[in-house]
Design brief:
Layout (H helix, E strand, L loop, with lengths): L10 E8 L5 H8 L8 E6 L7 H5 L5 E5 L9 H16 L8 E5 L6 H8 L8 E11 L3 H7 L1 H8 L3 E5 L6 H14 L4 E4 L7 H4 L19 E3 L2 E3 L4 E8 L5 H15 L3 E8 L8 E6 L2 E2 L3 E2 L10 E8 L3 H11 L2 H13 L5
Parallel strand pairs: 1-4, 1-5, 2-3, 2-4, 5-6, 6-7
Antiparallel strand pairs: 8-9, 10-15, 11-12, 11-15, 12-13, 12-14
Helix pairs in contact: 3-4, 5-6, 9-10, 10-11
Bound molecules: guanosine-5'-triphosphate.
């Protein structure tokens, strides 16, 4: 069905946030099943250098843009403003399909408040309003994350809607307790438990008004200054890698087993799309906190070169350890040749 431009010419920007692995990308995939929501531009922000989320949603959303290698709430706010401004310009020129709403999927560590402030500086042909701040909360790990991560609390207290995900993996009492905690943290937010069949994407993305600035009831204090960038996410590091040569699943699995048996408490998030030896189609695997899901076939490579992409986000742990262990256990041939090159190489200037 052809989409028509909204006559009011106001474009709502929805912020979709929620702690690492709480289900933001999965929610987008569900949202995009609604035929009424296809005229949506999607901006995805990822913490690591290698973005994966666009792979998970790209078939669903035509206007998808990726902002990687930084968190949009601190280091790359200007990029977000430029990206959205540019989206409007390109739609006006007919370079991309017209859209009547924008969804910004933030990193799992983002603080909504500075992002909302940045949205106010967008200069576009059509006025931009804040649609809603939608926050996914992990039904299994949410209570623990709220107890241990300032970022998770900051997201909830600034939410218009909190959506509890993964309810089917938890028990009803724990879900009820989590819902109670969310109400207590933010009495103004609607709190909903996502259940199959009870989800109305159109209702979720109906703008609730034109709030231009979120109440700054809770702000993450800037923690550290690195170069000229304010970095709010203390002790968080990421390692990511893209590899064209096929990976042996047994090696990858052994590496994950070792990593999680030794350092699970430092691992915030792991996600990978893998080009595995003996398989023509990509496979995906997710780790959220200490929990690792099953390896699952995932779509196809389409026109893309089969390339594994892996991201690991750590807290209080040098991400270099991840790189080294990955090289040693998953790509031993490459690690060996890198060592040989180091030893036999000409000294650098
Ligand atoms: N069973 C179940 N699994 C879910 C649900 N939502 C997300 N997941 C799983 O949780 C993992 C992480 O989901 P994502 O949607 O990638 O989470 P995210 O918030 O986008 O992750 P980041 O962008 O890395 O912060 C994946 O394995 C999903 O399949 C849910 O409602 N139920």
């Amino acid at each position: 069905m052809a989409q028509t431009q909204r006559p009011d010419a106001v474009t709502p920007v929805f912020l979709l946030t929620g702690f690492l692995g709480s289900g933001k990308t999965s929610l987008i995939r569900r949202l995009m099943e609604s035929p009424h929501l296809t005229d949506t531009a999607l901006v995805i922000n990822e913490f690591g250098e290698v973005g994966l989320d666009q792979l998970f949603v790209q078939s669903a959303v035509e206007n998808t843009l990726l902002l990687e290698n930084g968190c949009v709430c601190c280091s790359i706010r200007g990029d977000l403003v430029d990206t959205i401004t540019d989206l409007f310009a390109r739609a006006a020129n007919g370079e991309i399909p017209a859209f009547s709403r924008v969804i910004v999927e933030t990193t799992g560590l983002a603080d909504p408040q500075p992002i909302i402030a940045a949205l106010q500086t967008i200069r576009s042909s059509r006025p931009v309003v804040l649609g809603k701040v939608i926050v996914t909360v992990d039904g299994v790990l949410g209570a623990q994350q709220l107890g241990s991560a300032d970022e998770a609390v900051a997201q909830v207290v600034q939410a218009d809607v909190c959506l509890v995900t993964k309810a089917e993996l938890s028990n009803p009492n724990a879900i009820n307790a989590l819902v109670g905690e969310l109400h207590a943290l933010n009495p103004n937010a609607a709190v909903e438990v996502l259940r199959a069949g009870s989800f109305d994407p159109d209702l979720l993305l109906a703008p609730s008004g034109s709030r231009l600035a979120a109440p700054s009831t809770y702000r993450l204090a800037p923690r550290r200054v690195r170069g000229s960038q304010v970095v709010r996410h203390r002790s968080v590091e990421s390692w990511s890698e893209e590899i064209e040569e096929p990976i042996m699943w047994s090696r990858f699995r052994d590496w994950l087993d070792l990593l999680y048996s030794l350092r699970a408490s430092h691992l915030l998030r792991m996600k990978a799309v893998l080009n595995l030896v003996g398989h023509r189609i990509p496979h995906a695997i997710h780790g959220v906190g200490p929990l690792v899901g099953a390896l699952e076939p995932f779509g196809d490579w389409g026109d893309d070169t089969a390339t594994s992409r892996i991201v690991v986000i750590t807290k209080g742990m040098d991400a270099e350890i991840i790189r080294q262990s990955f090289r040693a256990l998953v790509l031993p041939g490459r690690a060996q040749s890198e060592r040989s090159a180091d030893h036999g190489g000409v000294g650098s200037s």
